[in-house]
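Q: What structure does this chain adopt?
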Amino acid sequence: MLPPLVSVIMLTYNREEFVGRAIRSILGQTLRDFEFIIVDNGSTDQSGAIADSYAKIDKRIQVIHRERGNIGCGRNTGLDVAVGEYIAFIDDDDYTEPDYLEFLYNLSVDNNADVAICGADRVVDGEFFSGNIFNDILLMNTEEAIITLMWRKRYNNGFPTKLFRRALFDGLRFPVQGRYDDIYLMYKVLANANSVISFGLPKYHICRHSNNNSAPTTNDGLITVEYLEEYRKAYRERTKWLCKRFPSQSEYWWYFDWSFQISMVNKIASNNLDSCKKHLYEMCQELKQHRREFLSSPYILDFERKWMDKYV
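A:
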């Protein structure tokens, strides 16, 4: 028996009000040749039972129940058993268009790309917000794809909205500690790709609510000391890794590092986050040390110059 074309991986944890919708959106795909790996990450509600009920009626679903771990642990569980030529992800509180997989697969094959990326819109209380929609097709080499990722306009660090050749994950897994696993791994996966294709039509729907794991990234008032510590560590690790792997683009990698820091400085100061004052001081000191390089960067934006004048 031939392996499936695509392995779809979904981690679920206490999302009983959403998970059925996510499952149905995958089962309704126009591309039918897939396996659907659902990892129940120690749910204490009915999320795992709901997944089991769908597995009884569709043999493409495989449900794995495991003890509670972070997002990375759960996704690694799915990667370890996936056998498809391609890997796709969906979050348990989101849903997709019926042609999500077919669109990405055709985009990859037609352009001989190792990664295909579609667009996404956001759904808040049933209302759609389109965001930036890119209706053109952009074919990129490895470094171009990572630089585009860093700008966070055309696509972001999230693993949903992307179709990957499974071989790109050889030797790579998500971190088994922390909450923000996407930041740690996405650039390394893209670094393994020969080419990446992006066509920003929204085939994926991101649903925002108060319990999202990414809530601090969209609500500055929710930023905590723990969030900052993990984010700063992840961004610095990324900068050093990229400088070593692609030294000719080091000017870019350090610009993005400083850009992140001045953005965090502005968020802390603007929201009067007293608990984060230590991080505010440390980042201001580093930005002061590299003030000349940052301000002379050809990539720096006008508002970043204003923030540097205001805070550093």
